[in-house]
Design a protein that fits this description.
Order of helices and strands of chain C: HHHEHEHEHHEEEHHHHHEHEEHHEHHEHH
Shape of chain C: globular
Strand content of chain A: under 5%
Strand order of the largest sheet of chain A: 1-2
CATH superfamily of chain A: MetI-like
Largest interface: A-B, 109 and 96 residues
Shape of chain A: globular
Helix content of chain C: 40-55%
CATH class of chain A: Mainly Alpha
Structural class of chain C: alpha/beta
Helix content of chain A: over 70%
Chains: A mainly alpha, B mainly alpha, C alpha/beta
Strand content of chain C: 5-15%
Oligomer: heterotrimer
Distance between the termini of chain C: 49 Å
Order of helices and strands of chain A: HHEEHHHHHHHHHHHH
Radius of gyration of chain A: 26 Å
Largest sheet of chain A: 2 strands, antiparallel
Number of strands of chain A: 2
Amino acid sequence: MQSASLPPSTPPSGARRASGRRTWMRRLYVPLMLAPVVLTITTLFVGALVVALLQSFGYAPLYGINEFPTFKYYGSLFSQAGFWASVGLTFYYAIVPTIVGTILSIYLALALRRRFRGKGFVQFVYKLPLMIPYLVGVAVTIVLFGNGGIIARSLYAIGLIETTRDFPRLIYSHAGWGVMFVYVWKQVPFTTLIVYSVLMGLGRESEEAAATLGANKWQTFWHVTLPQIMPGIVSATIIVFAFNFGSFEIPFILGGGFPNTLPVEAWRAFEDADYSRRLRAMAIVMVIGLMSGAVLFVYLWTYRRFERLRGRQ
Amino acid sequence: MRPAADATVATGAQRRRRRGLGSDRLGPFGRFYVTIMTGAVLIPFLPLIVGSFAFRWTWPDLLPSTWWWEARGTARLPQGWDYIFSPVSRVVESTGNTLLIAIIVTLLCTLISLPAARVIARERFRGKSFIEFFLLTPLIIPEIAVGLGILVTFIQLGLAGTYLGIVLVHLIPTIPYMVRVLTSVFQGLSSDYEEQARVLGAGPLKTLVHVTVPMILPGIIAGGLFAFLISSNIFLLTFFIGRGQIETLPTLLFSRVSGGGALDAVAAGVALIVCVPGIVLLIITERFIKEEVFAKGFGG
Amino acid sequence: MLTSILRRIAPLALLIAFVTGAALAQPTGTPEAEAFREAFLAGELAWDDVLERAAEEGEVVWAHWGGSENLNTWIDTVVAPSMAEYGVTLRTSRVTNTRDVVDLILAETAAGRGVGEGSVDAIWINGENFFTLSSQGLNFGSFADLVPNAEYIHFDPDNPASGPNLFDFGYPTNKEEIPWSGDQYMCAIDTARLSREDAPSDFAELEAWLRENPGRFTYVRPPQYNGNTFVQSVLYAHNPDGTSFAPFQLSADALGAEEFLHLARPGYEYLQRIEPFLLGGGGADGQRGSPIYPEDQNGLEALFINGEIDMACQFGMYNTAVSVETGSFPETAENVIFPSDGMIKNKNFIGVPINAPNPAAAMVLANLLASPENQISKLGAIGYVLGIDADLLDAETQAQIDEVAPSLMGITYDELGAATVPDTNASLVNVIEGTWIEFIERRTGTLEESIEAAYQGR
């Protein structure tokens, strides 16, 4: 009876004997195996967040400031219009490239399923931006899209523009085209990789079935393929959005100055000559984490509900 | 020449419909799209390569007005690649730091993640989904939150500006990926082999060494490569914790690009060098690892 | 369940305990390093003893701004081998911002690392950074006139020539830092895009030129020192009492927020007026747009090289010449006198913090950097102005200086000398930067409020 009800993946039968020492060791087995990971993440990651949290509420004896608990750092943030402009900008830089990148990736992944000349080369090359740091993308964007960059110089050479001012401002502006280009450039390989492997794992039977039933390509994609790759897309977009929301170096270099995205504002507050500004930096950082987490939570929850609804259908 | 309206030969459209899905070949728009995407990856590197060999490349020149080799004798200080490969630029030192840190981080990360991945894959226990979510949070909370929070503590502990500090901080983003990859490796692995080994009399250590490890080794290597990749590309955490005392390739590149740099020859050259570990990794993974392994942790 | 919670909290509790314990520790310092410091500052040690001890220490850590390849190359190829001759390995820490080094020293001393236990031996420093260290008593001591090469520097307070050596941004150096270099704030133009005749020579002409040609100019963003110096120049030129730099030599407390508001108002309003006409600004419609203020002089030079701005202002008398020669600047770049009524000139120094781990080696390094050979090598190789006083050198050496000095690219020493003005008081630096950030960048409120906030936060 006992053996029939146990799940197939439990450890060998010797441990099921009611020996005292064995059960004690068995009870410790899972926690012990998890301990290294949990300890590391807790001390380093959670510890860092706790320190930031405490400081954001005014507890910073290291700087000679102890006003714990106080909401004044958050208060001064929320009351400034510049802060909300930063929030909007951060969301804008996070959402748009995620959506654009995902659409581009889906199409690329679908294309990679077919045969075409040079497919091996493309399969090798498209992963390249994934392997290099974001800063290389930044360097490349400056050289290409700067007002004095290569594209501008080419237009000057053929007489389309006369001075650097005539070239549209793509970097160092709040419209953020340069920033978003870097994100899309780096993230399309990532999302494509995930979607492509999911597609590979799925096989084409359902699609072929749909085709024989008379569905055209668009209907096949929308009603058959897309739901199948949805879990992969959701995972990828979560990671991509989270990164874009919290990224520092790209908007710092390519962004448009005040109002900056939240991570850049946090860094500026931290680097201020005034030490109490550092506590404001901690408040900003907490806000970043909370907003990012909240958005992703809602996203995931909506997706799960959607899945359940579809399941019922 | 195609026979016109021959009833015995099926037209292309009829053949496609018969096969049930549509041509397996990519259509012209698809080919165009793939070409554009491939171009978008490769073309941006061209100005970098040209720039790294430039001596003077100011507006509005499309090509450098003076090339690097033309000015080598006359310039008062080493320029371009001479400077990059001289000890002054600290490029060699940074590369060494990057690789060293990445290797240590990969080893540590593997050791820490293996046991956790094994129980997550095999066992059911209370709080399992919480642990899975907990291990995802470092990917959701941005690096700047961790960097600022941990910096002051590390300064106090004397860990700021040390290799140990940087290694510790690199573990944060690498562990989640490693655990997920290893978990899927273990999930794909039946425990029957281990049970058989034990039935045949092998002790737990022998089973581990001769049965388990060889079977999961490819997965570990894949996860390790991924962790190595992440660690060698990390900028923000290294920038904060390194405090300018330990330079890795990303922080070196930042110091050259962050001014909104003109991409002088040295900056372009450093940007190219920074790509080398990534390209090497790409070649290795292309030859040995299937793409599915990478995506296992994230896909459906 | 409880054990798993406890297991999670324990490491964090330990961490917090450790951190608090470390914070409460009092600075001590090794007695042996203390003894050296006392003996040296009292003048009891012969220079040979210092050299001997330096060789024992074996290394010296020099923290300096690392944004110039040329400087880095010169240090590694000239200074390092010279130090090696004394048996000392030179290790440089290239920082993006000297303030980070000051913060590090503050953090170290707060954590209890006293004399001989720090991590930085020498700092390339001046202005408000030196002021911060000095006001907290974190300098090694008055060592500048105790090294042999001090004979090339005027330190006699009765001699007016000693002013720049004894006062750094109006704050007394107490000889706790030794002059290393100096410079004058000036502007470069690309004559291919902007001819010398059209280039503005003062701020009124600049505003007129900007209104006609919007988007051709910008300045470095304060608090970087190049940006701050531009703002200082604006304040001097727009001083409503006509006294230029004089009232700004007072300390922030002596001046007071109200007086500062009165003196600085026209200047800040000028900066706000020209903002739409800067690079990225809204232009003629007067919309603010997104004005682009580069983070440092490298960013400014990048805009200049890429043809986005026609005039770039920074510290660097010989910078244009060296940049043209090393391929950065276009060959048509030249210097101009701007603003004609006040180009700020200052000196920068080598400072030694109180907890330098290798104090003797730091003294040897400071002495080496003040030697005429080294100073002339620096001038010739990378165009950094002399920090020692040339009139104390013999005629032959002075001739050498004239030989190796790079070109002034279109202006003369007399013109430069006629326009010289000093920096503001060190304590005003944070006020000026803070006001700029609040009033010009963030537009949080009126000028009064911005100045109040800056006074609070300095």
